[in-house]
């Protein structure tokens, strides 16, 4: 731009020198003034300001990047990291400023190019680069279900963070969930280290869920930043919802809304009643050990070969095979709170327990009703369905 001004000025002075001698002095002054006016007319009056300053390092990942225009309006802003990945953002109505849609990644160099136009349509462009901070303390989210899995209609997407979160809104904003077909999905915090997402009602079978975890650079608590960028996808399989009636001691299994089997069961005996409510299968074990010491019933039982066991709660509720129950199934309740199905020692695929195990997947729903116990807490397992949607 400076070179352009000098060239214009030289041309104007030369023109003055070419006129007659009586007008040489005045012609020179007029020529200089004319060159200045032309240069000024081509220079945009818009002023673009970029923060942080060019070359800055140790820049905060949230709130530090600000781009504004004075005496004009921003028309284009480009922000990208060293690999060319663009930063989403929006120019404010009126063109006075631009802000990023999300936080920036940590320990990353960014380049900025911003253009504004003044009232005459003349452009002014500024460029800058800076590097974000390198965190000393970090966190990640341990998630379920696994990437690529097929799960039942009751499966929420659950995150357990390795550090307690004191800035939940910033963390939640960094998690995006897309579903096909589209359905509203909301998150709910249990304490400061767990965040579950679910729709209002059970998932529709065949739904494809994609979760983008963009936690790198999110300040979850003072001085503690996320370091995780991952996409997790899972698919909702067929619908299987089984209802255990404690009074009748029977379980009705429905597949895609149709009853496919009724199975005699035994549930919690008096003093050890089974929880009421909607429970989600979170683990499946063909064989496991059950020791009363792990759930506060020390010395009452220690069974090393429990077959066809599927977890329903964190506190120790399972639906599992039972080879020691005698004639309890369908007749009386004899367990310490679990739901027992008849099985053979060592497990048998032809037994009621084996049949149910082979046809169940993680995320299937088991509903218990008519128990003398209360409804299970929503955070005891992946059982948020027991919380009304308006409180979720």
Automatic annotation (TrEMBL):
Annotated ranges, domain FHA: 234-324
Superkingdom of source: Bacteria
SUPFAM superfamilies xref list: L,D-transpeptidase catalytic domain-like
Name of the featured protein: L,D-transpeptidase family protein
Stretches the record annotates as Disordered: 16-55
Pfam families reported for this sequence: Big_10, YkuD
Organism name: Streptomyces ureilyticus
PANTHER family named among the record's database cross-references: L,D-TRANSPEPTIDASE, L,D-TRANSPEPTIDASE YCIB-RELATED
């Amino acid at each position: 731009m400076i070179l352009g001004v000098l060239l214009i000025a030289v041309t104007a002075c030369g023109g003055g020198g070419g006129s007659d001698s009586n007008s040489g002095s005045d012609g020179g002054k007029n020529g200089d003034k004319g060159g200045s006016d032309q240069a000024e007319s081509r220079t945009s009056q818009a002023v673009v300001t970029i923060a942080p300053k060019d070359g800055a390092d140790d820049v905060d990942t949230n709130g530090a990047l600000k781009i504004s225009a004075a005496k004009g309006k921003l028309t284009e802003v480009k922000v990208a990291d060293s690999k060319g990945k663009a930063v989403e953002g929006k120019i404010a109505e009126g063109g006075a400023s631009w802000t990023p849609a999300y936080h920036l990644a940590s320990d990353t160099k960014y380049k900025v190019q911003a253009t504004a136009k003044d009232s005459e349509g003349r452009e002014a462009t500024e460029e800058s680069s800076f590097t974000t901070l390198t965190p000393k303390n970090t966190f990640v989210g341990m998630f379920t279900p696994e990437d690529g899995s097929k799960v039942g209609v009751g499966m929420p997407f659950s995150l357990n963070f390795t550090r307690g979160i004191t800035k939940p809104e910033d963390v939640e904003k960094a998690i995006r969930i897309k579903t096909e077909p589209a359905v509203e999905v909301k998150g709910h915090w249990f304490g400061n280290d767990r965040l579950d997402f679910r729709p209002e009602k059970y998932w529709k079978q065949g739904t494809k869920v994609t979760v983008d975890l963009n936690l790198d650079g999110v300040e979850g608590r003072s001085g503690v930043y996320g370091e995780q960028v991952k996409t997790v996808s899972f698919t909702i399989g067929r619908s299987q919802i089984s209802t255990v009636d404690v009074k009748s001691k029977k379980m009705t299994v429905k597949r895609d809304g149709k009853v496919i089997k009724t199975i005699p069961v035994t549930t919690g005996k008096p003093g050890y009643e089974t929880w009421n409510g909607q429970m989600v299968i979170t683990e499946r074990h063909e064989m496991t050990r059950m020791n009363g010491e792990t759930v506060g019933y020390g010395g009452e039982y220690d069974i090393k070969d429990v077959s066809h066991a599927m977890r329903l709660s964190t506190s120790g509720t399972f639906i599992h095979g039972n080879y020691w129950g005698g004639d309890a199934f369908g007749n009386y309740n004899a367990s310490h709170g679990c739901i027992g199905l008849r099985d053979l020692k060592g497990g048998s695929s032809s037994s009621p327990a084996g049949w149910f195990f082979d046809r169940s997947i993680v995320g299937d729903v088991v509903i218990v009703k008519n128990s003398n116990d209360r409804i299970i807490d929503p955070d005891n397992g992946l059982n948020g369905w027991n919380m009304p949607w308006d409180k979720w």
